[in-house]
Design goal:
It contains 5 helices and 7 strands. The protein is α+β, with helices and mostly antiparallel strands. The strands form 2 sheets. It has a 4-stranded antiparallel β-sheet.
């Protein structure tokens, strides 16, 4: 009975930081910044000394708002939902990842099946003090690499997985 209780014990549970979705959020920024820059450049004639009619600037801004703002909102909303629905859990001797926006995807692997584990930090992640933990298993293709994305306590999780792997090897 005691062994079953230890196997079901949640050792760690966490979520990625919202800013770990930097590539999506960067796309949203580009969708806003580039058209605004183009709009303001077009607001001046070729020698950049005489502004054109304010109505042209308003028309350009209106076109921008109709085209790009809804797209930026949709992308940001989808990223928010993905972030909200992603949960990582280390329970007993299993790693479980729950994610999905419209459909729920649950991936669960036994920690003893993990062949290698590494921490990856991009320059942006270093500034945000978050990292991805990449877990490699003996599976084939997509199943052989699992990423625990954008977590702040990455060293704790890395060490926890390593400790559980060591305990399973000693058994």
């Amino acid at each position: 009975m005691e062994r079953n209780r230890k196997m079901d014990e949640i050792h760690w549970q966490g979520k990625p930081k919202f800013w770990s979705y930097d590539s999506y959020l960067g796309l949203v920024a580009l969708l806003i910044i580039i058209p605004l820059g183009i709009m303001f450049l077009e607001a001046f004639d070729k020698n950049l000394s005489h502004p054109v009619d304010r109505r042209d600037v308003f028309d350009a801004f209106y076109t921008f708002a109709l085209l790009f703002y809804p797209l930026a909102c949709i992308i940001t909303g989808a990223v928010y939902l993905l972030w909200k629905r992603t949960v990582y859990t280390i329970q007993g001797d299993k790693l479980r990842i729950e994610t999905g926006v419209w459909d729920c995807r649950i991936t669960q692997i036994r920690i003893e099946d993990i062949k290698d584990i590494e921490i990856y930090q991009s320059p942006i992640f270093k500034k945000l003090n978050i990292a991805n933990i990449q877990v490699f298993t003996s599976g084939v293709g997509e199943k052989s690499k699992i990423v625990i994305q954008g977590i702040p306590d990455y060293e704790k999780v890395f060490n926890l997985i390593e400790d559980i792997r060591e305990k399973n090897r000693k058994r």
